Amino acid sequence: MKRDVLGQSALDFPSGGRVVPGVEGRTDVWFEEYPALTHLNLRGNLDEVDFTASVTGALGIAPPGVPNRVARTSDTCLHWLSPDEWLIVSTLSAGLIEKGLAVSLAGRHYALVNLSGGQTVLRIGGVRVREILTSDCTLDFHPRVFRHGDCRQSLLAGAPVLIRRVDGLDDVAFDLVVRRSFSRHLFDWLTDAARETGYILRAPHCE
After folding, report:
1. What pTM did the predictor assign?
2. pLDDT averaged over 10-residue windows placed end to end, the chain, 207 residues
3. CA–CA separation, 140 vs 154, rounded Å?
């Protein structure tokens, strides 16, 4: 039985990538996996005095108060999950973020749980990405509805996912934050759905 290790690929992406041509040799979708990111669940009360300022002081960004929005810096994304809950996804170490928040939020009511070992990020992009996602997800991925800076929680191929539209790329792309226990099922389903369009497995790229 394979044991998941923090930073280890949950999907065994080939180091050199892979091209799977579709009809007429096209490759209209691509995939990247980001298995080594820090994932922290933060809970707190935006109405509590200085809570927002304290989080901002530690992370450099304020927790979004508007549903389904993301706040981000060059290394950290803060996703709105509920009125008192956010998911932090970062390239910074969990220890560094935990220490910063512990100092900044000392004496306030909050909860911080490290989920890094149990989640991975699968990025999917390309000219046919919306077609693939909508084939088994009830969300509307039209750019006027699913805007830059948006995130949504939903089911995709029966797996619970948090979906974020990726900013700053020349291509249309979405990040799928998924539990590692569901990641193989989700990846297999997506690549099967993309078999006709063709797809590329790529090494991770920095935004």
Report:
1. 0.91
2. 51 78 91 94 95 96 97 96 98 97 94 96 95 95 94 97 89 95 95 94 73
3. 11
